[in-house]
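User: Could you walk me through two proteins back to back? I'd like the raw sequence and the structure tokens for each, with a short line separating them so I can tell where one ends and the next begins.

Assistant: Of course. Protein one, sequence then structure:
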Amino acid sequence: MTGTLDQIIAITSFGNEYLKKGQLTDFYPQNSTFQYCDFVDFREINKNNIFNSKKEIIVSKNPIEWFDYLKSENCLKLRLYYQTVKEDDYKMAGFVGGGGNWFIETMYTNHSDLWISRWNHDKNLAEKPWQVTYGKVIEKNSIINQQLDINEIREKLKTCLEKISEFANQHATENWGQIFDKAQETLDNKNPESGFYHNDLIILDNYDLQNRQLLMSASKAFVFGGMGSWNDMWFDKKEVEEEYNRLSSELYDLIMKSITCAINKDRTE
């Protein structure tokens, strides 16, 4: 997956743990999703009604402060919410700001707020070049709390992986087929996090095994990036190109749904 998506998953998972228990150890800046970040802060965006200009106010200087701020405001839960921007979002998924919009939904008793990340790359910061801000872009919204049927999503992802693996073996390379096969096998793996880079991505005890399998399968199937990635290919035959685009779009959509489903169905009730 992309670093931006990894981080928003981690913040959501560990944030729910903090809201439940009121404390966390070894999350920020120790978590691997922050290893290249100079800072990660949280801001409210206010508009000046006279000139219609925006002013950003830092409400928390880091994720732990933000969790504490949310708890003091009686926030109940954090949830992921994905918003499609274009029909072919998968083509831009490897670029910062591309691939659709991911929000953290902060749920309260009668409303929700939506927060979105902005990543700025500072070339002068060699080891930690990313400066990350999460901004509250929608306030007092109706509660979304998107929930999907996990059995249905698992079955659809499995079927899609079978189809795209077959396509890859016929029209691309065996390597791509192996990637999709491993993602499919993860749906039945008793230790689905095995071999995954971010082994501290979520609070494992807060999720059932089928959730973790779905999340890791989706993560391992995420082949969308820039040059040299799955979506950096084309085919001479029109019918092959059309099937490639259809399967790629379907897989990307199911990956987004799988991540949402896996994270939003947790044990923190």
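----
Protein two, same layout:
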Amino acid sequence: MNIEEFEKIMQREDREENQEDLEKIWDNKSEWFFNRTEKKQENFSNRLVFKIIKEKKLLNENSKVLDIGCGTGRHLLEFSKITSHITGTDISSRMLDYAKEKLKNVSEAKFIHGNWMKNFTKEKEFDLVFASMTPAITTIEHIKRMCLISKNYCMMERFVYYRDPIREEIEKMLGRKLNKLHSNHKEYTYGLWNIVWNLGYFPEIYLDKYISETKKTVINYMEQIICTDDEENKIIEFLKGKEKNGKIISKEYIIKAIIFWDINIF
């Protein structure tokens, strides 16, 4: 297979391509996304991404880090514990507002709104170029640009597996599959790894597997389900039967892939 074929594998058929539309979509989602992720109170320092960074000693207090598609700044906050020279970029200005508030005490932190491909063109500007779950990297040119602006390392994090038993029960009840969540498809990681390899680098891949206990409301579930009015009533009735003190306690089964490569072969 040639590199262009791996690009096709990496790209999602349902991805939106209009920048203005994407900005509106993520601006509208920003409050929901912030509330949803903050409630998890996830300890990012224990996640495999940062274990790898610490074990490999990739960063020090003078390192410069770029987070592409930084969202509300969850990863930036963890990076700031190592270095204050952090830059976050996102297509959503509202997402960046949350990130700015979160990192208001980090004097060196920078936030750039807009298309990262237009805003970052300087060669070897950052020690680490990082991206987690973002739809902003979908082409060979995007990956080439990551390599260009990094003088040391690139790292990406993607979902490759996700399972929610509550959603599975709803599917069984309805007798059909629910709409896919906005998580990453595993073929992306396969395409990405091969593109990086074909560009002459030696990417490493790590799997972060964990089970997370969740406490969600009926509204939390319904916000992510597309259904008819009749189905909605059935689903709400089902979910209320699962409630205890206003919360539905369940588990999420998650596998994330971390793809890491060194820009310098030696």
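Residues 3-160+182-210+257-262 form a domain with the Rossmann fold fold (CATH 3.40.50.150).

Let me know if you want the two compared in more detail.
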